[in-house]
Amino acid sequence: MKLKDLIEMYEDKRRQHGDKAYLYISEIFEEAREEYKEEYLASPRAQRLRAEGKVPDAEQSWKPFKGANFEKLILYIIRQEIESLNLKCVPGNLLGRKNLPIELSRVYYNLVIKYGRFSVLPDADLVIYNPETCDVVVDPMAGSGTTVDVCKEEGREVIGYDLTPKHPEIIQNNARNIPLPDKSADLVFIDSPYGDNVKYSENPEDIGRISCEDERFYHELEKVAIEIHRILKPGKVMAWLIGDQWVKKNFTPVGFKLYERLTKYFETVDLICVVRRGQSSHTGLWHYRAKKNNFYLRGFKYLFIMRKPAPSAGKIKWAKYK
Length: 322
Known about the structure:
- 38% of the residues lie in helices and 21% in strands.
- It has helices at residues 3-17, 25-41, 44-51, 58-84, 102-111, 146-154, 215-231, 254-262, 284-293; strands at residues 88-91, 113-115, 118-120, 126-129, 136-139, 157-162, 170-172, 185-191, 232-242, 245-247, 250-252, 267-275, 300-307.
- Strands 7-6-5-8-9-13-12 form a seven-stranded mixed sheet, sandwiched between helices. Strands 1-4 form a two-stranded antiparallel sheet.
- The model has no long low-confidence stretch (mean pLDDT 85).
């Protein structure tokens, strides 16, 4: 007796009773129980037990078989109906495994309950989910976790990474090598270092330890851009926040230099200037210094919104006017 035998018995009931076949589950298992016992008592294992002077216990052997296959039979029965509604169903214990596919990772992150450093999954035999609502946002440099918090508030699935995590739900990882499959992310947001003006960590791999006046800075950011391009689905969007630098009368157009590299991999959707409000440069002291020393206050950052080209995307046909 195997799972396929239970399925054949169910299909036989369905031929007899149609959509009401599920009402005969108990009857199916009673019939299966008798067949299982007959097979077990005739098995080499039972014969070996008799030769040892022991009595084969068919009932004790039946219980684990029933426990292992009852859930699988139920999943087989309901799967067709679930899929007709464009939903999916998986065994609950499957979500506790490592290296889940990206779709199941999204389901996991939606269900998991966090207690500080510990994570607990609800005890569920079967999990039914809608794959269409599993769009995932990825932040490869999540920092203090603003992207994670906002996505949680908005009910969006999110995966945040950082070289030095400062948030319990951020996974430690180098943005130059994002541990996600190709074409798996629906949106990527990144607020990368603008140079070495802020001390993020002592980690030698930290891009924020390289000056934006050094071409190596842009070379390393391009490695991150290549990874974002790899994990992003065709036609989906990436948003990159970056600012320029003005140090000791030296201006470095960080935004333009990065944008030039991003255009190798992405199509431009929009360029947005994000106004800095409430930051240290937006004070009377800095206004006074700017007037006295004749320099501009950089009152904005760039937000580059760019799309990974889709294979079918053609060139825009412009209307010509006389």
